[in-house]
């Protein structure tokens, strides 16, 4: 893993524009954040800040050359789980803006809460952002940062706030503090410790930091306004005591900063220009600005200060996107892990067969606005179809195999057949597969007593075996329960596709097939939405009650012989079914395992 902070001597070479993920059909839509950035670049106000090549307070940046990046954004996850599709929106927005404006996007871990965080998640998150096509280590500047590296600076700023009379140590028990906080309609009440002298608070803060006080006995609070109509501004807590081991700083600290304190300071230390966050933080913006102003007054930051802009988070129906709930799904065994293809995590989407391009296309299509957003999974699925249609090689796969015997076909004959790898790209060549007397066809392609309008196989009817011969059904065999075990047919030797005789036959049905002697048996995992309800966690409901028991179904399929050597992650369109990927964890060429990525058409609506 690369170091969090480049060495002090890191040259501030102008970062070259990283190789951007170029998505041909993803037109860059303008939106209110782009407009805000344009307006800020117009005034040139951010152009005068210096950048020493690494984060730090004004004292460290002073005298350094002007920041070569016109804008700096950041993606700041907490390493307490794997990223989900909602995070993809934020990643594409932040990294995408930096690319478009030749700026920088910082990959920052907001790792200020020691209890829930873990190195496993740090590694998983970095891998995911890179897989999505974004990079932070380019042009001689490595913008991988950890808020925990700023603990020393945070603490200095805290002492400054105390000395300047902007913060105090409160020693009320937690329940009294809560009771005095007021409500949305009633103002709060001042803490009896609010009038403490700066000296007294400073002494206590230092003692807290030194480990002389137990958890819960004291907190550091900003001194703002207990009567503010904005509850966030009622003397928010800045630091609390936690005797907890941190995954990076170990036991160096026993006081930890609150998110609302650490976040704006991290942005300012990193020269961030535009701090994009979700709408829930709109009420926190006055605190964001207040803290940065107070710290800038103390000489800690250059101006102009970073600016927070809120956008609507992505919510998707038929799933949940809270890390806590995703964690519960994993821990309860409702799914097989964070990368179970039923999950909305990006590692799961990847395993399911999603491409980085399809996820970026999705992010572009859903756009960025202030309006609350519920997106149907069909939008994500369509982005995948649109990406894979042009890319995925075609193949035959029989997912619910039923035997077909061509009774007039010679026992040992192997009739070579061909089909294009991709119907619109003849340059990608041909697939080769033999036709033999015993074949597998899809069970649903035969009906002993066909309903009206059924034009596939039934006794007396003719269909074309795609890329092969026309056949005529002569009968079938069934077991004692009446279940069909074998279909019998004659083939018409002069009807082979691509030969002059083929045109003489007009049939309505065209079915796919695989030679029984040459087909490749495979495990195919069929996936559906994880939840049956559009809003599984609406109104505090237990989302686990609407888990779709059919969301994963394993079938024994027979694949076209050419798939015998498919490597993990190889993607195909199984004709008439959908897009499938060789599972990146379980697939072996000898024991093939494929996942359904997406069906050819949206079938959810029809199913219900
Ligand atoms: P959770 O509540 O599930 O833990 P979070 O928002 O706390 O999610 P973070 O790791 O703090 O997760 O998020 C990192 C970044 O991703 C934040 O800037 C956040 O605004 C953004 N983000 C998280 N969820 C979404 C979402 N559903 N849509 C858009 N952006 C999101
Ligand atoms: Mg969070």
Provide a descriptive summary of the structure in words.
This protein has 14 helices and 29 strands. The strands form eight sheets. Strands 14-27-28-29-25-26-15 form a seven-stranded mixed β-sheet. The model is unreliable at 1-19 (pLDDT under 50). With 608 residues, it is of the alpha/beta class.
Average the pLDDT over all residues and give the rounded result. 93
Strand order of the largest sheet: 14-27-28-29-25-26-15
| Distance between the ends | 48 Å
The total count of helices amounts to 14
**Count of β-strands:** 29
Parts with pLDDT < 50 across at least 5 consecutive residues: 1-19
Helical content, roughly?
10-25%
Give the structural class.
Answer: alpha/beta
Q: Largest sheet at a glance?
A: 7 strands, mixed
């Amino acid at each position: 893993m690369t170091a969090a902070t480049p060495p002090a001597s890191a040259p501030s070479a102008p970062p070259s524009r990283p190789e951007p993920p170029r998505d041909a059909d993803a037109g860059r839509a303008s939106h209110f954040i782009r407009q805000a950035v344009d307006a800020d670049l117009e005034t040139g106000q951010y152009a005068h800040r210096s950048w020493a090549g690494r984060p730090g307070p004004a004292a460290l940046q002073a005298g350094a050359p002007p920041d070569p990046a016109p804008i700096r954004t950041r993606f700041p996850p907490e390493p307490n789980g794997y990223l989900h599709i909602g995070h993809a929106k934020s990643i594409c927005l932040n990294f995408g803006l930096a690319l478009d404006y030749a700026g920088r996007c910082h990959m920052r871990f907001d790792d200020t809460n020691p209890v829930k965080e873990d190195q496993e998640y740090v590694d998983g998150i970095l891998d995911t952002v890179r897989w999505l096509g974004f990079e932070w280590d380019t042009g001689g500047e490595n913008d991988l940062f950890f808020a925990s590296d700023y603990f020393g600076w945070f603490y200095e700023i805290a002492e400054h706030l105390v000395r300047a009379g902007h913060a105090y140590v409160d020693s009320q028990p937690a329940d009294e503090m809560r009771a005095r906080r007021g409500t949305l309609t009633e103002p709060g009440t001042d803490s009896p410790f609010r009038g403490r002298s700066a000296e007294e608070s400073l002494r206590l803060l230092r003692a807290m930091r030194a480990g002389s006080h137990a958890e819960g006995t004291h907190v550091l609070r900003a001194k703002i306004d207990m009567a503010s109509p904005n509850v966030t501004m009622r003397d928010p807590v800045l630091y609390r005591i936690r005797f907890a081991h941190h995954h990076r700083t170990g036991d160096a600290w026993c006081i930890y900063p609150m998110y609302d304190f650490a976040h704006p300071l991290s942005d300012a230390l990193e020269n961030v220009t535009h701090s994009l966050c979700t709408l829930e933080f709109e009420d926190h913006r006055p605190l964001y600005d207040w803290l940065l102003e107070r710290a800038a007054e103390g000489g800690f930051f250059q101006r102009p200060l970073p600016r927070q802009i809120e956008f609507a988070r992505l919510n998707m129906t038929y799933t949940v996107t809270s890390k806590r709930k995703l964690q519960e799904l994993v821990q309860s065994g409702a799914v097989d892990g964070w990368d179970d293809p039923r999950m909305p995590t990006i590692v799961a989407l990847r395993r399911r067969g999603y491409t980085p391009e399809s996820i970026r296309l999705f992010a572009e299509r859903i756009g960025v606005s202030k309006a609350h957003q519920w997106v149907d999974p069909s939008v994500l699925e369509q982005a995948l179809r649109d990406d894979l249609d042009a890319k995925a090689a075609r193949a035959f796969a029989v997912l619910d195999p039923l035997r077909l015997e061509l009774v007039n076909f010679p026992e040992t004959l192997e009739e070579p057949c061909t089909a294009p790898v991709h119907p619109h790209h003849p340059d990608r060549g041909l697939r080769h597969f033999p036709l033999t007397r015993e074949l597998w066809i899809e069970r649903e392609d035969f009906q002993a007593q066909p309903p009206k309008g059924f034009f596939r196989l039934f006794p007396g009817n003719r269909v074309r075996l795609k890329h092969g011969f026309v056949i005529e059904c002569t009968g079938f065999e069934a077991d004692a329960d009446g279940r069909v075990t074998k279909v019998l047919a004659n083939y018409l030797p002069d009807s082979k596709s691509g030969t002059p005789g083929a045109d003489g036959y007009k049939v309505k049905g065209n079915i796919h097939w695989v030679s029984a002697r040459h087909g490749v048996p495979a495990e195919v995992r069929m996936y559906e939405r994880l939840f049956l309800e559009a809003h599984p966690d609406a109104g505090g409901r237990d989302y686990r009650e609407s888990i779709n028991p059919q969301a994963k179904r394993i079938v024994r399929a027979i694949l076209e012989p050419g798939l015998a050597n498919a490597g993990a992650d190889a993607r195909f369109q199984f004709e008439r079914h959908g897009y499938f990927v060789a599972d990146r964890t379980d697939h072996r060429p000898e024991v093939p395992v494929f996942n359904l990525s997406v069906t050819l058409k949206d079938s959810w609506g029809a199913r219900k």
